[in-house]
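Notes from hallway chat w/ T.B., transcribed later so I don't forget. T.B. wanted the structure written out for a chain they're using in a teaching module, and asked if we could keep both sequence and structure tokens in one place. Agreed to drop them here.
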Amino acid sequence: MDNSPTNVIKKNMILLNRDIKSQDEAINQLIQQADKMNLIDDIKIFRKSVNDREKIASTAVGYNIAMPHGKSNSVVEPFIGFLQSKAPFKWSENEDEFVTLIFMIAVPENDSDSLHLKFISKLSKKLLDEEFRNILTELKSHSEAYKYLKKVINN
């Protein structure tokens, strides 16, 4: 299996212009989509891994971005999902962090190559770029979003 960033970004894991009101709603939409695409084989187990990680510390990283992630045996194939919310919403009840761009990172439990850390690092560096964030906020088509994310993540 090739786990390069190109192959972990799936066109059908890009959800644009969504009316999202909460962290749970955002995470649920991404997980449901991953399940439809057979990227995970157990929604409950994967959801628990994402929730457990969120309990350690919020995955809101500033700049209206959150990067929920999970390591789980339920992950059939590593992926990065992207959700663009129509409007900012509060990511966590305990913090005042609002988000509109959500990247979900999923890797198998036996992530011996620390793929999730590589993906998080790669994304985090790009997310510091204001132009990158602005483009992500303005994307309107799945094809455009897919091409842009593939190009940016591979540079």
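Follow-up for T.B.: The beta strands are 9-18, 60-62, 65-66, 69-72, 79-90, 98-108. Might be a good example for the class.
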